[in-house]
Specification:
Blueprint (H helix, E strand, L loop, with lengths): L1 H15 L6 H4 L6 H6 L1 E5 L23 H7 L8 H13 L20 H11 L3 E7 L10 H7 L14 H11 L3 E7 L6 H5 L1 H20 L3 E5 L6 H4 L1 H10 L8 E2 L15 E4 L11 E6 L18 H13 L2 E7 L9 H17 L7 E9 L19 H4 L10 E8 L2 E6 L6 E4 L7 E4 L8 E4 L2 E5 L13 E6 L1
Parallel strand pairs: 1-2, 1-8, 2-3, 3-4, 4-5, 6-7, 7-8
Antiparallel strand pairs: 9-10, 10-11, 11-16, 12-15, 13-16, 14-15
Length: about 475
């Protein structure tokens, strides 16, 4: 009798566990809908690497300033080092000296001007709906009071014990949530030079990574987790299916948290939550949620060597957002704050400019889904674009949406939909008549930002819209939106 009761109790407990530690089970968890509705998020790379804030700028090359420690290490006495690595090592010698270890930069990470409420205000004004801060990058420095960080490094290695002497992740989490935005974090599974990682990877995973991950999740209850640094090991070696089973069954965010696909070298675009791309055109012809992330320049972490011409304009960033959303994706746009805790003014300006457009035109972005035709091209040769790659693929959508070259097609409109409505987002204002192909049942046309109905005719599946004169407010916009009501 006792044995039968024990068996019944065990069966009930196991039955209550929604997800088993296998990809077959974990992949059945639906992605929370808020992520697919949000469309626009802010990525933040901030850590000890924000002190040197440097990577050599080489035309046409990505140079991640947050990889400073790795680059200077590999650039030292290495005949196979890249130009970015040798350039970083040369800079480090000149600025700090050949015998100055990277770890000694931590006390200079002061964040003395960090104002989380100002950051949160900028994010809200940008029109972004979610935020992800680097809780720790591959350097292992934690932006919260992680006991595992200092224990395995054998020195103070978190922002409460050294440098800012402040819970940066906690303070920003509170400020962002007060603004009504979703808040989460980036978390690197591995750490380049953690002594335990270098000496005993299984112990690093069981005694450092796993309890540290559970600690940061339990403390801050993230809405989103951007995993990374997974590529050295398989997910079985990382034990991430077990970790995610805990996340979805037992953690305080088990029903609401969104995760990505970076949980082992076998998981990208295969397992986990939403798929990720990085400095690419994103994905296409896909029902699965996905997100493209990129900086405003060639780096995620702040790079003081970048100049104005290395930054995308607000128009370029907005056309990227529109293009990605029209194909069902999200944009996670990165900022790299300075070591003193300020957002570089050019980054803040870009975000506010994007927000000004979204105040008027956000109805064509938030909560939308792709229309059956995501783009309308002009006559001419349509260029081939390399979609569905993970990392660094040429992407100049603003050029594709500019005045066409002879014999070449250009994008006349991007399309999104919500309910019965279709939105045509025009990257150029053609004036006169604008025609939308393969669309029926339209009952009204409006120009977002204007209360005056727009005249149109419908025949043979073509909507011919008589474009109005633009007001002084709408004329300077980087793109204009026609709402086609059905």
């Amino acid at each position: 009798m006792k044995l039968s009761f024990a068996f019944f109790l065990l069966t009930a407990i196991l039955g209550a566990q929604a997800y088993q530690p296998t990809w077959d089970s974990i992949d059945k968890r639906p992605n929370p809908v808020w992520f697919s509705d949000a469309k626009f998020g802010i990525f933040i790379h901030w850590g000890v690497y924000s002190v040197p804030a440097y990577a050599p700028v080489i035309p046409g090359k990505l140079a991640y300033a947050e990889w400073y420690w790795n680059a200077m290490t590999n650039g030292r006495d290495n005949p196979k080092a890249t130009a970015i690595q040798t350039g970083t090592w040369a800079y480090h010698q000149k600025q700090y000296g050949a015998d100055f270890p990277y770890q000694n930069l931590a006390p200079q990470f002061h964040a003395e001007l960090f104002d989380p409420d100002h950051w949160a205000d900028v994010f809200q004004r940008s029109g972004a709906k979610y935020v992800a801060l680097t809780s720790k990058h591959h350097e292992g420095f934690a932006l919260w009071p992680s006991k595992e960080a200092s224990a395995t490094w054998g020195r103070p290695w978190n922002a409460v014990e050294i440098g800012p002497k402040r819970d940066l992740l906690g303070d920003l989490t509170d400020a962002v949530r007060r603004k009504g935005l979703h808040m989460g974090f980036y978390y690197s599974l591995y750490e380049w030079y953690n002594p335990l990682w270098l000496s005993d990877k299984p112990r690093y995973i069981s005694q450092h990574m796993t309890p540290q991950f559970k600690d940061v999740v339990t403390r801050y209850k993230p809405d989103i987790i951007f995993g990374d640094g997974e590529w050295d090991l398989t997910s079985a070696e990382w034990h991430t299916p077990e970790l995610l089973a805990w996340l979805f069954n037992e953690s305080p965010v088990k029903d609401t948290v969104v995760i990505n696909d970076r949980w082992g070298k076998d998981t990208r675009h295969k397992h986990g939550g939403y798929w990720t791309t990085e400095y690419t055109p994103g994905m296409a012809d896909l029902d699965h949620p996905w997100e493209e992330s990129r900086g405003m320049g060639f780096s995620y972490g702040y790079n003081r060597a970048e100049r104005l011409d290395d930054y995308h304009s607000s128009r370029e960033l907005l056309i990227m957002l529109v293009d990605l959303v029209s194909r069902g994706g999200n944009l996670l746009l990165d900022i790299g704050p300075s070591a003193d805790g300020t957002i570089p003014v050019i980054m803040e300006e870009r975000l506010i400019q994007m927000g000004n457009w979204l105040k008027i035109n956000g109805d064509a972005i938030y909560g939308t889904r792709p229309w059956k035709t995501s783009r309308q091209w002009s006559a001419g040769e349509v260029p081939k674009i390399d979609y569905n790659k993970e990392f660094e693929t040429a992407y100049d959508v603003t050029k594709l949406a500019s005045k066409p070259e002879a014999g070449k097609a250009s994008i006349e409109a991007f399309f999104t939909s919500k309910g019965n409505n279709v939105y045509a987002i025009l990257p150029r204002w053609p004036g006169g008549i604008f025609k939308v192909k393969d669309l029926t049942g339209v009952k009204s046309v409006t120009l977002l930002g204007s209360s005056t109905p727009v005249k149109f005719t419908a025949a043979n599946g073509v909507i011919s819209v008589q474009l109005p004169e633009l007001s002084e407010e709408l004329r300077p916009q980087p793109a204009w939106v026609l709402k086609l009501g059905r």
